[in-house]
Amino acid sequence: MLKTIDGLARRLVGSSFLYMRRFLFRILSVGPIPNHIAFILDGNRRYAKQRNMTEGTGYRAGFFAVISMLKYCYELGVKYMTVYAFSIDNFKRSQEEVQYLMDLMLEKIKGLLEQESVVNEYGVRIHFVGNLKLLDEPVRVAAEKAMHATANNTKSNLLICVTYTSTDEIVQAVQASCQEKWNEIQEVNVNQSQNAERTEEKLELDHIIKLVDIERHTYMGLAPDPDILIRTSGATCLSNFLLWQTTNCLLYSPKVLFPETGLRHLVLAVLNFQRLYPHLEKKKKQF
């Protein structure tokens, strides 16, 4: 009997929270809604340390916070959510911690593909972003499988930055742009007799690398620039994350550790974005 009452009470509380959340999001939707929110998941290890838990427990708690944020972003109408899950610099940590993170990543990727997962419930398309060649092969294969399995989902997008740094992204984008232009030059040289009317000056202009060329070859070229970047634990540095894409992005830094992040922090970030929206839009038009 007590178990039945307890279960009923939990369902009522959960239902009440859901209706409250939807009502709150309807109010927020009166103003501009960010199209893309990015997260730096800072504080997982400190969360575990403060509670005398293992580091692994902190990372697992962080994963559940990611899933909650994904649900909230979807319900609010945010089309793109990006999380900084694993930096190339994280390879400098102990071998045991790196291996644990790889194993956890593999476990959670498989979990995301389950029929009852939030990805399938909300029609989320998954993108793994970064230098994926650096991943352990089982993780890389699982990531590719997840991207393929969700390729037809169109309601929202989850971008997971793994083995990623912004400097690596920029270097590879420049290299890819140079290679593309070199291939074009080679093709023109082969067909030079057929294009004799084209002046040397025109050919030179065609082969100059432009800003759009580099942007097209960035890892994040598949998504619009973020409107809000949320970094938890109160830190205000970007830690080599989305340096190219955050020129006109609002940085929000709540003091909570990432596993403690909740609905109120997302709401405050969006309210701050709406308050500064005219200024942010004006800055975008200046570029």
UniProtKB/TrEMBL annotation:
GO MF assignments: ditrans,polycis-polyprenyl diphosphate synthase [(2E,6E)-farnesyl diphosphate specific] activity
Record keyword Lipoprotein present: no
In which domain of life is the source organism classified?
Answer: Eukaryota
One annotated Gene Ontology cellular component of this protein:
endoplasmic reticulum
Family, according to the entry, reads as follows: Belongs to the UPP synthase family.
Alphabetized SUPFAM superfamilies for the sequence: Undecaprenyl diphosphate synthase
A single Gene Ontology biological process assigned to it is: polyprenol biosynthetic process
Protein known as: Alkyl transferase
